[in-house]
Design a protein that fits this description.
The protein has helices at 3-12, 23-34, 60-63, 71-78, 219-222, 227-232; strands at 14-17, 49-50, 82-92, 99-102, 114-117, 120-123, 126-131, 141-144, 169-170, 178-182, 187-190, 198-207. By secondary structure, it is an alpha+beta fold. The chain starts with a helix and ends in a 17-residue tail after the last helix.
């Protein structure tokens, strides 16, 4: 992270890294999702999800685990010995509902936190959200209250059930970009209004000594991964945990 990226992440709780995936990579991922014929979500399904794509034939889903552009960010935000806790995809069609706000710096959550000590950041759960389709301004999708990962008071009740609109920010995301945010940020999903489908892949990482979810990777999956990727799926522990390397670095 350069000085401005570090400043913006500390200030707002998220960072957008553009131009990471090529059009060919996006097309390959979208074709693999199309082949799965995902069900049409119900009208009130605020965040339809799918998983299991690390086992699919398309290798891009596994390459995203330790993408060389993103690993240096994760080193700084979590530490070099981080792990991939869980992952899933989100798809939203026009007029589908959103997901209520969650997270926030207060009350303190030991699994989802943001603190700064000794001139460096420490995070619990960090999310990398890959956009496989454009998220235009005003189209919905990911939203947040910038800076709320450092809030010291719980959000007061609001008559609309959501935070006041003046506090919310919808984050546009070009296809092929990666949105990095801390789960300590108060965030949610706005209803999708674009004609095309929203498609995002969320990879969630945490320090190597802790876990948020529960994962028992199958031997067949482990056999398809690089040593670096297998390291990411190890169970949580501290003693002599090996750092995750930057592929090709």
């Amino acid at each position: 992270m350069d000085d401005w990226e570090r400043y913006r992440f500390d200030l707002e709780g998220y960072l957008l890294v553009e131009g990471v995936l090529s059009p060919e990579e996006r097309d390959a991922a979208n074709a693999a999702i199309d082949a799965r014929h995902l069900p049409v979500p119900a009208e009130d399904d605020g965040s339809p999800r799918f998983g299991g794509f690390l086992d699919w034939e398309e290798p891009l889903f596994r390459r995203l685990m330790d993408h060389p552009r993103l690993v240096p960010y994760l080193h700084e935000l979590i530490g070099p010995a981080f792990r991939l806790d869980h992952e899933y995809g989100i798809y939203m069609r026009r007029n589908r509902a959103g997901l209520q706000l969650h997270g926030g710096g207060t009350p303190f959550d030991p699994s989802q936190y943001y603190v700064v000590r000794g001139g460096r950041m420490y995070n619990g759960l960090i999310v990398v959200s890959w956009a496989l389709q454009d998220v235009p301004p005003g189209a919905g999708g990911f939203c947040c209250i910038p800076g709320s990962h450092r809030q010291n008071w719980r959000e007061p009740p609001h008559p609309g059930g959501f935070a006041p609109e003046s506090l919310l920010r919808q984050v546009p995301q070009p296809a092929g970009s990666a949105l990095i945010f801390t789960e300590a940020l108060r965030h949610g999903t706005l209803p999708w209004t674009a004609d095309h489908e929203r498609r995002s892949l969320l990879y969630k990482y945490c320090p190597g000594h802790m876990a948020w979810g529960h994962r028992l990777p199958a031997p067949a999956l482990l056999a398809r991964l690089t040593e670096n990727q297998r390291r990411l799926l190890e169970p949580p522990y501290v003693y002599r945990r090996q750092p995750v390397e930057v592929p090709g670095g």
